[in-house]
């Protein structure tokens, strides 16, 4: 395979991963919404590490920002734009009007 073919393959794989992640995010959101609609209430959003939702979002934000910087360095701006949309969604959830992040 040539370098160009390898890069094309890598781009296709990345695109598929992003698509799958977006679908999984949407599925998860729908599952949580259905649980809530059926009366399930989450009193304390923590996981095994004791992280609350805000802490998880901050971690995800850091990860996405790192990925975006890598893509920008590689001049893969279309992929960086996709990651930027994820960053904006996370920021919106974190800020919730507070302007903290």
Explain this structure.
The chain has helices at residues 3-37, 53-73, 77-95. It is mainly α and 101 residues long. It has two domains: 1-43; 44-101. Helix 2 (53-73) runs antiparallel to helix 3.
State the gist of this model.
This protein has helices at residues 3-37, 53-73, 77-95.
* Main sheet overview: none
Put simply, the count of helices is: 3
Order of helices and strands: HHH
Quaternary form: single chain
Count the strands?
A: 0
- Bin the helical content: over 70%
What is the domain tally? 2
Based on secondary structure, the structural category is mainly alpha
The whole-angstrom Rg is 17 Å
**What share of the residues does DSSP label as strand, in percent?**
under 5%
The pLDDT mean sits at 83
Please state the overall shape, judged from the principal axes of the Cα atoms: globular
Spatial gap, N to C terminus: 44 Å
Low-pLDDT segments: none
């Amino acid at each position: 395979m040539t370098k160009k073919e390898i890069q094309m393959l890598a781009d296709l794989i990345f695109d598929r991963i992003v698509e799958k992640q977006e679908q999984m995010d949407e599925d998860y959101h729908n599952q949580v919404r259905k649980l809530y609609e059926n009366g399930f209430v989450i009193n304390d959003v923590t996981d095994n590490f004791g992280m609350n939702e805000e802490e998880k979002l901050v971690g995800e934000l850091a990860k996405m920002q790192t990925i975006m910087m890598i893509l920008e360095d590689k001049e893969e701006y279309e992929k960086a734009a996709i990651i930027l949309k994820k960053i904006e969604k996370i920021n919106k959830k974190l800020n919730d009007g507070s302007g903290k992040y």
